Every structure is written in C-alpha cells, then in structure tokens.
Amino acid sequence: MTGGFMTSAGRLSLFAAASLLMLGGTSAGAADLGGNCCADLEERIAELEATTARKGNRKVSLQIGGQVNQAVLFWDDGFESNAGVYTNDASRSRFRFRGDAKINSDLKAGYLLEIGVRSANSKRFNQDDHSGTGLGMDLRHSTWYIDSKSYGRVWMGLTGGASEGITEINLAGTGDVAKFSDAEDMGGDLALRRADGFYSNGALTAAGALSIRRLIRGGSGNQPGEGRRYDMVRYDTPEIFGFTGTVNWGADDTWEMGLRYKGELGGFKLAAGIAYGESSENGGVVGFECTSNVTIAATGKDAKCNQLGGSASVMHVATGLYANFAAGYMEDEQIQFNPRFAGQNVDDRQEFWALEAGIQQKWFPLGKTTLFGQYYDHTGGASDQAFGDGGRLLSSNLDIYSLGIMQDIDAAAMKLYAIYRHVEADATSTTGTQLNFEDVDMFMTGAVIKF
C-alpha cells in the first residue's frame, strides 16, 4: 500500500510540476505576444495620426470632401479635328473644408473653404492651345456664416449669391457631366471657321477670332441671368413650405434677390428658382458681367445692367422621366454710350433658353442609368467682342444640340458618362459682314469620382 501510494503521489507530483512549467511557459509566451501586439498597435496608431487631418480646436467640426472630374474630349470644327484629356469644367475637380459649431439651441457658426483644380481646361482650349487658360488651382469659396433655425443664415466672404446656379436646377444630377444651360463648359473656346476654312479674323490662327463662348452673353460665356461668385454679404431665409429666399450685395455695386422651391407633390419631385439682379461695376468681371463694363469706364460713366434668370426641374418618381427648363436675359443699358456703338441704336439684350429631357432608372445593380437630350438657344445683341474684320459683334445666334448617357457606380461614389454635342452659329459685324460658321461636333467621355 505504501509503495503504491508513493508511486501515485510521485506521479501526481510530476504531473503538478509539469503543469506549473506549462502554465509558466504559456504565461511567458502570452506576455511576449502581448508586448508585440501592443507595439504593433501603437505603431499603427502613430501612422493613423500622421495621416489624419487635425483640427485646431475641439469646438468646431471639420469635414473634408471634393471630387475629381477628368474626360477625353474629341472635336471637329469642319476643317480640323483633334482630341485631348481635360478637366471637365461642367463640375471641375475640387477639394473643400467645411464645418460648424453650436453656439446655443438656436444658433450655430460655420465656414466653407473650397479650392477648384484644373489640369487642362475643357472650356478654354482652342485649336492652337490644347491645354487652355485658367489651369492650376483657384479659390471658389472662402466664407463664414451664422445660422439661426428661427431667422435664417447670414454669409460673409467669397461665395455665390441669389443668381448662382439659378439657371442650372437639375434633379437628375447631369450637371456634374454636362450642364444643359451652360454651353461654354464643353469646347467653348474653339474658334469658329468660315466656309473657306479661315477664322472670322481672316487668318488660320485662333487668336483674335470669334469662338463659341464669345457669342454668349457678350463674350463672357456665362449664360444671361446666371450669377457668379464674388465677395458679398448674403442672407438666406429659413425654409417655409419648401420656399427659401436670398438677397445679397457686394462688389461695387452688385445686388441680387431670388426665390427657390424644392418639394414633392403627387408622385413628382419639383425644384425651381428665379432671381433678379443689377450691377454697376466698371472693369473686370466682379459681380455679374455687363457687356461693356470694361470699355464704358473710359467714358466716365458707371456700368449699368440688369438680369433675370430662372429654371425648373420636374421628375416622375415612379418612372424616372424628367425635364429641365431654363431661361434668362441680361440688358446692358449703357452699351449705347460705348464709343464703338454710339449713335447706332444697337440691341442691348442678351438672352437664352435651354431644355433637357430624359429618363433615370436603376436598370443595373451598379447604380442608376440616365439617358438624356439637351437643346440650347442663345440670341445675342451688340457686344464689344472683336469680329476680326475691323468691326465689333453686332448680333449673333447660337444653337446647340446634345445627347448623353450617365451611369452611377454607387459603390465608388462615381459617375461614368459620354456626351455628344453639335454646335451651329452665325453672326453679324458692325461693318455689315454676315457669317454662317461651320458646324462644330464634339464627343466627350470620362468620369467624376467624389470623396
């Protein structure tokens, strides 16, 4: 018995010792593993901190966003054809910083800083300059605001006013790839050719010749009735039954006021807006552009122009069928005093209207597909643009037809697109020269990805 007990006890002792050794080894291994794990975790945290945007304080939020929009554009002006890769200026590449901070239950303060980026400009290249002007980075927004749930929002700084985007309202979102009411964004600086292949300046070089955009709004290319961004003070009303109002003032002097609506009724999504503005700014394009605001300064008079613009968009929710319509005008009341037009009783009005219709449906798992067609019509009065024959632009007509497809890639916040555009134009000079220009055809395909 004793021998058996001792044998059993010995065995138990050996088992206990082995267990302790195993437990000790396991603990040591676990400690080593834990040390390696924590070191790796600390390294990853340090890497994350190094690549994360830092805020200057904990009170104001910071959001970073933007997009990249690049495309291949093919063109044919009737005598020459070519292609290039461009930043699509319908909605160019950009990055932004925005945020806000709560002041109390009713008030908050916020900011918006946005930078545009162009590697090559889809609206400023021509037959002799395949990259175009306005490259690199430009400041789009630099503004702060105070927002009240009860009384609305006040902005101060560089931003858009009541007329900004007022002729571009579009529930289908095709404005990211081809705006139906802003024709200059796609090949707008291509010079127009006469039937003999020469440009309006009688030469084979585009400098000093009329281009597509030079027939729009007296040469600026911006559609009549549409606003632009400039330094301003702006006030937005609170939303009331889907309506919001905006008034703003800035530059020296430009003021605008507008009304917008967005809602849904009887299975239809609706969005619309209208805005009116006046400007007396001499020189440059601060505020919205008067046709003769540069040359009129030499006469000792202030520029004086007014504009009205608006648009509407409606979409049937069940079928995805939709339509957009836009129209606007700009009148330059001082163009009669421009020395180049004095005593000629020239037309002081630039006007346009545009239409887009299409269908948007999710036929594929990737995302919604949009098929659309566009028409744009611009009638221009007198403008300070050089015709190229020694005269100035007396009148012009521009007709543009477009067909397009846009495919959303939901998983990548991306849109693929392809657009065909056909341009017809004619113009008359103060010398009496009348020209029916050669038609221009363009095809653009690319993608925009948002972040």
TrEMBL record:
It comes from Hyphomicrobium nitrativorans NL23. Keywords: Signal. Residues 1-30 form the signal peptide. This is Porin domain-containing protein.
